[in-house]
Amino acid sequence: MHLCLIADRSDLSRRDLGRLMVARGYTVVTVATGADLLHEAKLLRPALMLVGTHLTDESGICAISRVRQTRVVGHPAVLYVAQGLASDTAFDAVVAGADDYIAQPFDGDMLDFKLTQLAARGRLMGVSTPETDSAMPKLRLVRRA
Q1: pTM for the full model?
Q2: What are the extents of the domains in the chain?
């Protein structure tokens, strides 16, 4: 079982993200602050971190940057959980060290797609997804009316 560290200032967001990740076979630890995120990342060395836009003591982007600057943490996959489709903050998160981002609201299918992309790029080791057997993820375009 893999460990997922979830950081967000909202209890509701942490709970909802936690449920989604537990349903995907992850052990989940949640925190509300950037300081706790860094501490738990050092201690637990998670396979995946989901970091929200706002933490109680700093922005999610600052927290991602601090985690990436700390070599002791290792190099977990980081998925930035953006509020809405703010492309500027998603870009800033990737520059700070996030591997990818996902915009809220999202469903389980979108989360599975993002996790599959991370696994296909080798960022989630040992994660079993249908696409990890091939070099490229199978993308599907859906047009909704």
Answers
A1: 0.84
A2: 2-133
